[in-house]
Predict the structure.
Amino acid sequence: MLGNNTNESQKYSYLPNSPPAEPKRRRWDAFNDPPVEVLQGSAEETKISDGLVKVAKIAAYLLTFIVVLGAATISKGTLLFMTSQIGRNTTKMYCNELIDRNRQFVVQLPQIERTVWMWMLIFVYFVPEFLTFLRSLRMSIFKRWDMPTSAESWSLVATESLPPVGSALLVFVILPELDVLKGVMLTNAICFVPAVVAFFSRTPHEKSNVVKMSFDVISIIAQGSALVIWPMIEKEPTMWMIPIAVLLISAGWWENFVSEGSPIKFIKKLGKSKKKFNNSRYFLYSFISIWKCVLFFVTTIAIISVREGSVDFMFENFADAFSSHAINPTEIKPLIRGEGGMFETANHSPIMSNSLTPIWVFLINVTFTYICYIFGKFACKILIQGFSFAFPVNLTVPTTVAILVALCGVHNGNPCAFSTAIPPYLFFSSPPFYFLENFIRSQHVWVWLLWLLSQIWITIHIWQPRCEKLAKTERLYVRPMFDAFLIDQSLALNRRRDDLPEKLDENDGDEGETFEVNTPPMRNNSSYDCSVSRIYACGTMWHEKFEEMVEFLKSVIRLDEDQRARRLVRDELGFEMPDYYELETHIYFDDAFVRLHEKDNNPKLNQYVKNLVLAVDEATSKVHQIANMKLGDPTKYVTPYGGRLVWTLPGKTLLIAHLKDSKKIRQKKRWSQVMYMYYLLGHRLMQRNDLSPKQKDLISENTYILALDGDIDFQPHAVHLLVDLMKKAKDLGAACGRIHPLGYGPLVWYQMFEYAIGHWLQKAAEHTIGCVLCSPGCFSLFRAKALMENGVMRRYASQAKLARHFVQYDLGEDRWLCTLLLQNGYRVEYSAASDSYTHCPEGFKEFYNQRRRWMPSTTANVIDLLMNCERTIKINDSISRPYITYQIILLIGTVL
């Protein structure tokens, strides 16, 4: 046995019946011939990928920056190109090379040509609203939501009704009357309402900051100048639509800038009310998106009716507008004697338009707008937001201005410069040829710089992301989608300011509180920070081979080294480490003792335990690449269930092997899992008297059980990805990665294909339309708080009394644990990037026995979920009736 005193530790000096040591060699025989180590599993993956990771990270930064900037510039440029074609009495220079190089021509677009561009602008607005409708419909069907009150519904409808009217005024009234340079500059001046709301939403503490308040006032003045400066300069009545359009559009983003910490009661009330939309937003937007399209269309028709005198041509000429039609160039002859630049004109024979040009411009606009949105969201999710999101978003208008200045300058000098790419009768509404000096000095374009700088200040929050990695879209953006006409401004204004991870209320305890603890024998830290992530790596072993044990221990030791590196950076260098975690490893060894007879009271350790002790040093030597590296003998304890061996790994984390005696405690994997859940979460946490209930709740929120099999092989990065998933969603109870089977032979090849299908198709589909039903126990991360819920851990410890219970409880314990989590409102997710490797059966008998356990347990758990589907749907956001229908179809297909 291990000893006679359960309270005293002893040195583990020698294990009887261990493999014979290598014969002692003479000093001159000092040369070795070690076997060549064949890399496989995670080691092979790491060798291949390590060199590419750094390059990929740099490439991701640069590529995302280029795509966001380029796509936003193209989106804004094509928008201005379309608005340049719908103005009345707009004359453009026509390429004379196609008619007569010795003469000059201009062209004025006929009404039928302008009609097709008006429809293209309408369709451009419809695209993001249609995407909003689809996303809202999907979320309403597959997710649980709360029915909003009538007050909530009408308030959101009222505020969302303003931007469509403003967008219609901007696109069909203002931009056609401005040259493209003024138009693109004006897009930096639609932040007036957010600026005012943000100013009055500052907390009393922030109001004491004179610098911030000063910048707020300057930004409000700068944005407000856009309301009057060009209407006063242009002397055109239509320019007074600018303040109306700007106010209506900017009012749509009030929700992101209002704060319940404001000392002003009205603003504070608005800040509290916006939280009410979170659980009903998608349901409301499934109707609001349609309403916005209707409102935009009606407003557009009204504007066209007023400006054109009639709107009948929009519908009567619809088919003809999308076909080729005649365009009449006009020859111009400058008068030698005349004043005011008067011209004599002469008509020329008509040319035919290109019917595909408007469609191509439309497709380019909506495609690049969507690409900009997707890559911008990608940058926010992987936390490269500063360089690859905020920088290109704020750089979009200056880049567009620079490109348009160059294009318009070249075209003014040579109308045929772009005739091979753009039909000669189409181009931007260019400023006059001699525009540069006059444009900057007399027309107050210098104020654009104030608009740009004020926009940067108002959206300063996009430079400092505070959300977790891989945050949900709802945590990143307020609205479900983007603005069709102002992609760069919508990305900045729609990016949430209050994106901090969820915290407990002030009365629920302090999240960052640190307190002293009575350190149990296995812990090596003297203080406890409630908000720090804690990972208990818990592996189960029985009759694993020595090589499999080594692979498992190598993975654990790599994780130990990773934790040590993060601890040194945090403690010694003083850097903040948001991904820091504490680690402790436990191995639960089934049937660890051998008895000579049933009444033997002094059992011996079996050969598998002895192999584990030898494998610890073997794995340590291989990971640290130091020959014959020894950790030292483990400390041993006698326990009521058998015994315990404790090592301190090189990174100063603990490795504890719990040796189970079959005569004292139940065997098999499920009971090992019950054992470590109750020990770590019940005894080590809930039984402590020095913690308040709120502190225990917070600790359990940030404590994770890493369930492992005794032959698993993984890298620390795989664990980090699962922890990131846990941090981004508090309702996530379990997360699993992609399992790769290892071995040789045709049966292994079949399992490789089977595993690939299961992960690429089934788990990916479940993750998308609902949630994963099974998180494999060989490599999965479980949230402690989810396991501690009523009806999870306690029920998981139930004994099987019926045959169907045995099938459900003991043949597929991993799937049953996940079923319990789902039935208690928690979600299970899948991360395809989190790779792990496990040995699969190579012989038919072992394979058959494995599937004989898996298939009945899978069927039993799915049936259990279906029988309780009504209750599960009510409490679980990820389980819906369409998802239950999907599982019924799969079950029928499996049975048949």
Remarks:
- The radius of gyration is 34 Å.
- Residues 531-667 form one domain.
- Confidence is low (pLDDT under 50) at residues 3-20, 336-342, 501-527.
